[in-house]
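Thread: quick sanity check before group meeting

JM: Hey all, I'm pulling together slides for Thursday and realized we never actually wrote out the predicted structure for the chain we discussed last week. Dropping the sequence here so it's in one place. If anyone has concerns about the input, flag it before I start.
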Amino acid sequence: EVQLVESGGGLVQAGGSLRLSCATSGFTFDDYAIGWFRQAPGKEREGVSCISSSDGSTYDVNSVKGRFNISSDNAKNTVYLQMNSLKPEDTAVYYCAAARSLLRCERAVSGRWSYYYGMDYWGKGTLVTVSS
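JM (edit): ok, ran it. Output follows.
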């Protein structure tokens, strides 16, 4: 059974940091790219970052460059999203998802493709709330 389980969300003040984790199982981790998406209340889901599990290549959307960092621990089949300098507009449910290639992940995260078309497996999300 494929599983992606997010953790690490919570309440943080503006300017603070959080590290989200995405623990995966049920598929060959090295064959997939993992992406982070977020959905704020009343808004469309949007992409944040991608990482290739095979070579560590990454892709970030402009709004998080310099503040968020995606990384992976292949020994643990886990991907992390380190979020620094958080802003109230970062408040959202954060989801991780797996795609068959970094290209598919990039196209989903960038919005060129529907996020559901580009990604194959999804977690259930973790809530991040940034207070002002």
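AS: nice. The first strand starts at residue 3 and ends at 7. The helical segments are 102-110, 115-118.
JM: adding both to the slides.
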